[in-house]
Amino acid sequence: MYLLLRLIINAAALFVVAYFVPGVHVSGIVGAIIAAIILGIANAIIKPILIVISLPLEILTLGLFTFIINAVLFWVVGHLGLGLSVHGFWAALWGSIILWLVSWALSAILAPRRAYR
């Protein structure tokens, strides 16, 4: 249930990104859900590998290089043609930042942390 709620939150956040960032377009509800699934898989599998590979840059920039990694993943998912299209690196950078902010805010409101016992 929690995973489904996170998926819906990320799909809604993609619509917000498409509304505010020129150069980012979502094809519809199904496209947003598919793009949210692909982004989730990319963030779970590929992002940690890229962070380890770019560890010297991560240390040098005090973790700010993670924004670039997020933008590249967002851009790559946008170029797969699965419901999300991203035109340009700056659209990907701003899109990934706004996606993070909106999904964080919606998660804080709709999906409070589970208590660990």
Strand proportion: 5-15%
Largest sheet: 2 strands, antiparallel
How would you classify the helix and strand content by structural class?
mainly alpha
- What low-confidence regions span 5 or more consecutive residues with pLDDT below 50? none
- The total domain count is 1
Shape descriptor reads: globular
Q: Which bin fits the share of residues in helices?
A: over 70%
Number of helical stretches of at least 4 residues: 5
Roughly what is the average pLDDT, rounded to an integer?
90
Strands of the largest sheet, in order across it? 1-2
End-to-end distance: 19 Å
Output the keywords.
two-stranded antiparallel ribbon; 5 helices; globular; mainly alpha
Please describe what this structure looks like.
- It is a single chain.
- The protein is mainly alpha-helical.
- It has one domain.
- A two-stranded antiparallel sheet has the order 1-2.
- The longest helix has 25 residues.
Short description:
With 117 residues, this protein is mostly helical. It has five helices and two strands. Strands 1-2 form a two-stranded antiparallel ribbon.
How would you summarize the topology of this molecule?
Elements: H1 2-20, E1 24-26, H2 29-53, H3 55-60, H4 65-78, E2 84-86, H5 89-110
Antiparallel strand pairs: 1-2
